[in-house]
């Protein structure tokens, strides 16, 4: 079942005394064929979980890199259905790497929660992160996901106090995505020690693995975050390779660059022995 794929991934990493690497890319950037090659390159170079971005016209949580990635994908007319088809293609040969769709509520709502849940299940998707759908408003989504054991992955931030964390954790599954900075994706970098207490609280209240993202770009940063979290999420740094490939017209450079970065990040994380 989908959620168990996520659970198994964290269990495997825990058995190896390390954090997981969660890698993000935008579907259709610079094109769908390159996105598929990039997914494989990420997986082959140490990414434990892949977040597959679904392009949307108003990505309010994202910084410049991912905003531009979404616009490039939309210029190629990449749809939510295309994103699911990309996940399904990846799942044909890879039965174990969790794939998370990350995006915004509007395209899913427009498709219909029940229809999307069925399509995501058929595509081998493990869950979603819909960043603009708060716990108070995702009951219908959770009901649609339940028959397929799809994970509703929620976000928390440094300003999420304990009472609010209890609400965030209610009905969440898979893992909790902790936003390391009070800003958009790719903005600045967080001080791990400043958020260590928040992450401990998030683990205690949710009972879920906690992954840290936003602003993590280098192996050194990933290693520092791996000391305090169950997983490290990197997005904008991968997307930047797609932008360079788009600008040069050498699309094959995108999966090569992403793979090299995934290897750097994975190796850095594995140098940190978790207690």
TrEMBL record:
Q: Spell out the PROSITE patterns in the cross-references.
A: TRP_SYNTHASE_ALPHA (PS00167)
UniProt keyword annotations, A-Z = Amino-acid biosynthesis, Aromatic amino acid biosynthesis, Lyase, Tryptophan biosynthesis
**Which one of the record's GO molecular function terms can you name?**
tryptophan synthase activity
Reported EC number(s) for this entry are 4.2.1.20
The GO cellular component terms are: cytosol
Task: Please give the superkingdom of this protein's source.
Answer: Bacteria
- Give one Pfam family, short name only: Trp_syntA
Q: Which reaction does it catalyse?
A: (1S,2R)-1-C-(indol-3-yl)glycerol 3-phosphate + L-serine = D-glyceraldehyde 3-phosphate + L-tryptophan + H2O
Q: Where are the transmembrane segments?
A: none
The UniProt function text for this chain reads: The alpha subunit is responsible for the aldol cleavage of indoleglycerol phosphate to indole and glyceraldehyde 3-phosphate.
Q: Tell me its family.
A: Belongs to the TrpA family.
Q: What is this protein called?
A: Tryptophan synthase alpha chain
Give the organism the record lists. Answer: Hyphomonas atlantica
């Amino acid at each position: 079942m989908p959620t168990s794929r996520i659970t198994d991934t964290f269990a495997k990493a825990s058995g190896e005394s390390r954090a997981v690497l969660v890698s993000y890319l935008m579907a259709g950037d610079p094109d769908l064929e390159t996105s598929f090659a990039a997914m494989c390159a990420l997986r082959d170079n140490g990414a434990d979980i892949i977040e597959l971005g679904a392009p949307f016209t108003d990505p309010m949580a994202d910084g410049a890199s991912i905003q531009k990635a979404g616009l490039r994908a939309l210029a190629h007319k990449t749809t939510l259905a295309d994103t699911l088809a990309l996940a399904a293609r990846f799942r044909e040969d890879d039965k174990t790497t969790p794939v998370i769709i990350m995006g915004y509520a509007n395209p899913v709502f427009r498709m219909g929660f029940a229809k999307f849940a069925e399509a995501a299940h058929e595509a081998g998707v493990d869950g979603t992160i819909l960043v603009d759908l708060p716990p108070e408003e995702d009951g219908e989504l959770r009901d649609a996901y339940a028959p397929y054991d799809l994970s509703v992955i929620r976000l928390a931030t440094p300003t999420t106090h304990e009472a609010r964390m209890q609400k965030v954790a209610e009905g969440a599954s898979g893992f909790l995505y902790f936003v390391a900075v009070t800003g958009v994706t790719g903005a600045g970098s967080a001080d791990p020690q400043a958020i260590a207490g928040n992450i401990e609280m998030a683990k205690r209240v949710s009972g879920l693995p906690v992954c840290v993202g936003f602003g993590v770009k280098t192996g050194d940063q990933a290693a520092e975050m791996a000391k305090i979290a169950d997983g490290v999420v990197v997005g904008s740094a991968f997307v930047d390779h797609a932008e360079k490939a788009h600008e040069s017209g050498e699309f094959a450079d995108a999966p090569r660059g992403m793979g090299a970065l995934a290897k750097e990040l994975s190796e850095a994380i594995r140098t940190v022995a978790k207690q």
